[in-house]
Amino acid sequence: MHTHRPASGTAFRNGRFAASTRELAEEVAVAISYNGTSHAVLMATPADLEDLAYGFSLTEGLVASVAEVEEVATVDCGRGLDLQVSLAGDAGQRLAERRRSMAGPVGCGLCGIESLEAAMRQIAPVSAGVRLAPAEVSRAVAAMAKMQALNLRTRAVHAAGFYQSERGLVLVREDVGRHNALDKLIGAAARAGIDMATGAVVLTSRLSIELVQKTAVAGCGILVAVSAPTALAVDEAEAAGITLAAVARGDEFELFTHPQRIIGGSLQDVA
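Given the sequence above, the corresponding structure tokens read:
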């Protein structure tokens, strides 16, 4: 399926109306099924869907590693797509413990979770020791803006990227949903054998608790975003041992938690 399509309309510019054309991002219903049973429905961009299936499976705790996913098949159901995931080993049995139904708007990453305990799950603290210089935070954000091919066409999608000091921005994934973009990134990294403890996740969106949880599950210790975090996201990052660098615009950013991973970020280092 296409990720975007042109739409004709009328634009008001320079004091007058004129015919205009704009590329619009596609948004489709994507079901994720495990061993023949539908588990979740997301509204997503129809690109990098295998990465989405792997990343969602990992960050939701449905599989412990990519080795537990035997196959991902994409089936066009007419009104949407079905990602049919075949699980190996004990992963199918664990699935019953985390039943979810996430049909709902792309702005919500907790839609349909069956209990408060599942929504507020405890995440093991991240122990990643990678540190970045302040200039690298700015460099990572600037690099991702240039690598958002779909957003440059549509101005309507989020992106998640993975940055390493020695290689720069090594992966970028885009989606109409910010949670989907991060799941795609985590899935792509896992499939490529990239250890996310070796760098930083960079996001174009605001930071909510689910994005912090997904980053922690991936083992990444630094999370950078162009927008501000919610209060609960800061609490979660503090508990999970994640360095939260947000409101990253130009050469400026704010550190909310665990500043030691940004060189000079701890005030006592410069006192």
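DSSP finds nine helices and twelve strands in the chain. Try to locate this feature in the token string yourself.
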